Amino acid sequence: METAGASLYEVVAALDSELRTFDVPDYGGAVNGLQVANRGRVHRIATAVDASKASIDMAAATGADLLIVHHGLFWSGAQPLVGVRYAKYRTLFERDIAVYASHLPLDLHATLGNNARLAHALALTPDAGFARYKTIDIGVAGTANESTADLVARVSHYAAGYGGTVRTSVPVDGRTTKRWAICTGGGASSETLQEARAKGIDTLIVGEGPHHTTVEAIEHDLCVVYAGHYATETLGVQAVGAWLMDRFNLPWSFLHLPTGS
């Protein structure tokens, strides 16, 4: 039986407030917040990492009328609505599906965020921020005293559950993790590696990064754990789905569409 649902704009207002959508700086292509409207009601929510054609088609198949994603529709800037892009928007309009995107606001949220949720999944307790961008810390950091091999084993177990694999910049046998940091997604960069060195981080858990970050990490004896962009950014949208169910009594589902990266 279909629920009475909720106003799309009440749901959006709640998300904007909780995630501080318009207060958190982000990259230009993110376009955080409501990206596509529907006719004004929400009865079922789907969440996904990416606003891909596959996720839009799957959202339609589940009967969702709101799709919440981490990576939205506009990363490539203004583009002609032809081919796959046309097909995506046609499905959204024909099936009356709204799209809400949250990139850095979701990454850094203290309880719903990708970084906080990944730390919790790995049994790590943050005590500081990490990955400074403008006025914000995107990631988290904390203290430990455990075998790096044991920590990497937990990361590998987690990543495998989302279709991912793990590699490290240096061998982990015999290493001890005393200070760790997490920055999900494309979290390895010259800037985050420099920050890690400045803050005494010995183990940096990320989704991915360019080749030069591995070279740089080896040179500075930093263990970077590459756990997959997709795998490290699945938890935030799921947390948002559960949060909206509690607040609005709206059923939700997570659309698992691993990318292999």
Task: Provide an overview of this structure.
This protein has 2 domains: 6-102, NIF3 (NGG1p interacting factor 3)-like (Udp-n-acetylmuramoylalanyl-d-glutamate--2,6- Diaminopimelate Ligase, Chain: A, domain 1); 107-232, 3-Layer(aba) Sandwich (Udp-n-acetylmuramoylalanyl-d-glutamate--2,6- Diaminopimelate Ligase, Chain: A, domain 1), CATH 3.40.1390.30. The protein is elongated and about 55 Å long. It has helices at residues 8-19, 53-62, 83-94, 104-108, 114-121, 148-160, 190-198, 211-219, 229-232, 235-248, and strands at residues 6-7, 33-36, 41-42, 45-50, 66-71, 98-101, 128-133, 136-147, 167-168, 176-183, 203-206, 223-226, 252-254. Helices cover 37% and strands 24% of the residues. It is of the alpha/beta class. The chain starts with 5 loop residues before the first strand and ends in a 7-residue tail after the last strand. The strands form 3 sheets. The protein has a 6-stranded mixed sheet, with helices on both faces. Strands 2-6-5-4-13 form a 5-stranded mixed sheet, sandwiched between helices. The mean pLDDT is 97. This is GTP cyclohydrolase 1 type 2 homolog. Belongs to the GTP cyclohydrolase I type 2/NIF3 family.
